[in-house]
Here is the input.
Amino acid sequence: MFNKVVASITLRAVFGRKRALLFALPPLILILITLVLKAARPTGAPWPGRILGDFGFSVILPLTALIIGTSVLGAEIDDGSIVHLLATPVRRSSVIVTKFCVGAVLTMAFVAVPELVAGLIATGGPSKLAAGLFVGALVGSVIYNAVFVMLSVLTTRAIAVGLLYVLIWEVVLGNFVSGARLLSVEQYSLGVANSIAHYSALHAGLTLGTAVIMGAIVTVAALVYGTRRLSEFSLKGDAV
Amino acid sequence: MIQLRNVTRWYGNVVAVNDITMTIGPGVTGLLGPNGAGKSTVLHLIAGFLAPSRGELTIGGVPPWRNPEIYRTVGLVPERDSVYAFLTGEEFVRATARLHQLADPAAATRRAIAIVDMAQAQDRKISTYSKGMRQRIKVAAALVHDPQVLLLDEPFNGMDPRQRLHMMDLLTKLGAEGRTILLSSHILEEVEQLAGTIQVIVSGRLAASGDFRAIRRLMTSRPHVFLVRTSDDRRLGAALIGRPAVTGVELTGGGLQVRAADFGAFSRELAALTRDEGIRLRELLPEDESLESVFAYLVES
Here is the structure.
């Protein structure tokens, strides 16, 4: 399923672009804010939930995943170089799965690890909160990337569509309409994080069971549908 | 080898390719036609990057659409100049060899790069290549698995004359080896020198098919029917019938219908005749438009 050649080309493409610098920015901001707050208000207040939970899971994680998830495949589709990859007998499912894996691992490195570090800083050492944030962000990296890789096959405006989903559905609807949480990757991640952290300031709206089942369904469905659409990848003919 | 049966492709209500039936065998075949005629669409259909809206298309008996296995025998050189520019030429070709899961990717890479004569530049990044070099490295990648069928979309675009000549030699050689080479071009002279067989596509239809010289002969020697409107049809008709290039004249309600045996001579004489007789030529319309357009195209370019 996993194709090493596709993975290595993807990595070189992603880091060869200036956009790659963007990945490093959100986690840096997260750790910086954590350090500042830790220094300013060392104990008591529930700021880790605000920053590492709310801000981390509704802004940093989805946006970083969006940038990464749409670059691993979307950039190649946009500039047309994908044809060289698709004009080989490599299975389309293998292309999707490889792109998804690369995106997920990169997002883990750029978001889940910083969440863990920030969690450790915030609680002053190993804690349930740090572990919960880390595992929740790992789960989120996986699901978001499946969704965003699929989006980049479906539309050339994957970034815009992804941004609308994150901002409108997750942030606005997810906060006010409890039903919307059932289809919110942020909520799956928080649900998992909270099952470990047991931290009420995380604002988790889903139970662990729901989060895991829905997350698995969304991931698999996105990969299957993405594969199907990639199999039907068409080149535009003469300009009509 | 490549077979199209009544293949049609439309986008919304625009028909890009209209009911094309053709068979393409070993050797070099040129897909010819003006820009926007549907050549790329045909090539993309054959390459498996577009589904026919109607009709049947097979390569070696297998439909290419949604069938990546076809690329074990097919190589594609796309028109767009988008390659992985951050790789070196050698890395790009070797990556393609590995994607094909060849037994010895390194050897296949060396062979393919030697075919296109790019060994000296193989360790440079593709981003530093000229247009012609990019085209050649794309051909190397398309040839790395030694495919039976090679499809090239406008392969000479942006090449200088020397590179063009080199590419033509290469394609001729590949064709002579018994491979099926199909290339699209809107420039007649490129295809004329190269391809034994041509398929002319005009406005999405297959307008002519076969040996280039035969098509040209057929087009120039067949009788052409024109509708001529002038200030004095009857007088012009009388004058025209005396000319050897004209085989028939008929006065109709809409003007003068003229059958010409020799198109070139007729067009020259008509101008001289109307001038000498003081007749004003208002309109000259070919009656058989689709064939005329091919003809005009073949003669003009």
Q: What stands out?
A: The mean pLDDT of chain A is 91. Chain A has one domain: 4-231. Chain A touches chain B at residues 3, 5-6, 8-9, 12-13, 16, 79-81, 83-92, 231-235, 237-240 (CB under 8 Å).
